[in-house]
Amino acid sequence: MKPIKLTLLFIFSFLFSETSFGQFYPVPEMTVEPIIASSKTKELLVTPFSISEFISVGEFKTYMEEIKRDSTLGFYETQLPKSITFSIELFNNILKNEALQNKPMPGVSWTVAQNYCNWLTEKSKLKGRSFEYDLPIVSELIAYYELYNPKTDQGLESWTLNAYDESMFELSEMTVDYQYNAKTYDPPALKRKVIYGGSYHMEYSPGSKNDFHLINAPYKYIYQDSSSRYVGFRVVRKSSDAIKSMNDSLFVNADFGFQNNHFNGIYHEKYQTGETKVLGEFFKGQRIGIWSVWDSTGVLKVQRNYSNNRSFEFVYPVSNHPYKEIYAENPSYVLERNDKNLYKNRYLKLRSVAYSARGWKQFSEKNEPELFNQIDLKSIVKQVFEQDLTWYFYENNGSFKNELTNEDLLKIAYEYDSWDFSRVEIKEDFIINTESMSSETRQIGMAFYTDSIAVDPTYLLYFPSIRSILSKHKIVVMGRSEIEHLDDAFFFNAYRGKFIKPFQSVYNHEMKNDKEDLFMEFQKLSAEHDFWVAFGR
After folding, report:
1. Each residue of 224-262: pLDDT tens digit?
2. Whether the Cβ atoms of residue 159 and residue 110 lie closer than 8 Å to each other
């Protein structure tokens, strides 16, 4: 398999976010069996996590610049290499070299790599996220290699959290995941850390079943305060929040986390045979990091790197067509705001729609407390009247066929103060677009209930006509800096709500409970992943 490289962005501009700061690959819960000198090894359970590519020169340069600016000179100097084979001059030359900015960063000691992880964790907290970062343990690296089978052409070994101890290869109760945090006064033998993965400098013994990741020879190590020319590091990302896992007969072929009514955490979809179909990660209902799709025979078909539900890069398959550079300079669509501070939708041609489904959701403080409690629906209605926008009767599931007369408008202008503003209905379309090779959710209408016992709304607004009004309602979604106001939340589909009428092309009956409601969202995702496999993009 060719090594997976990051390609240029063709369709979407990539907003700066935590996920654009490197690529993260999700790994679900799984067991691995490390091979060591002793034959008495046992399987190790790996809990879900995401792991980065090797931290690049550019990423580490940002770290060094930030701590130089924000911390003491003494601490900054402790982050510089102390090695005969990796001098400070070499270190600085690598950081300055523009051609190396996307290459893995060598020469970072285990101790400094740990500081980098702590720095990422603090940045995550400042951004309102709940991610914690650390170096990987050996079993996590084994799981990563088993799933994604990357090659070693990046040229560096990976630091791990594991301490090296000969006894772990000889005693049946010991495992390769043995850890010990050495004290400053400990002898050097206690400061050895396992390195893993193979490099241009060292090759592992042949005979392992998956190129090099299961090793017959002893594991290798370096001292934690050493700077090596052939050792770099990856970081592991985990959520510090408790994430529920959905375990139900409806989801027999999927494992995923959810929190506050949203997909959250590692998403693992499988074929009926049990083989992995999709691996990805959500954060508050938004796709983040690397999403990978395999066909039913286990062949990797597609990889994308997501920043949010509207922004992604194609990662695999690598496209090297003759127009690559000029297309990159002239994208067909750029995710940006217009002069009204609204994100612009891509122009959509009907013939480019490969799949569409319509649904009606109820948006309330019960199913979307984080968003709903920040907005004032009554104020939105008031502004609609002030701007003299068109209202419709809701008849026939909000068909926009029965416009209110001036007499009707005068009547409801005096009545809306008593409406039921504890809920609102959103009419939306889910679309898979063959031109952009992406999916999106577009809101068609917003409908209001006149009283608390009403089954259906009474009055309807055409959603695009009220986007400017929604943009005046500032909101905060912790960890999502691209969302500034209510219209942004709808644009990025940063709400889930509750289905009150199902997608016509998927289900034909009312939702009976929250699990079936969640199953509707899963059906949308699964349909999109089938599209990725079919088109190989």
Report:
1. 999 999 999 999 999 877 777 766 667 778 888 888 878
2. yes
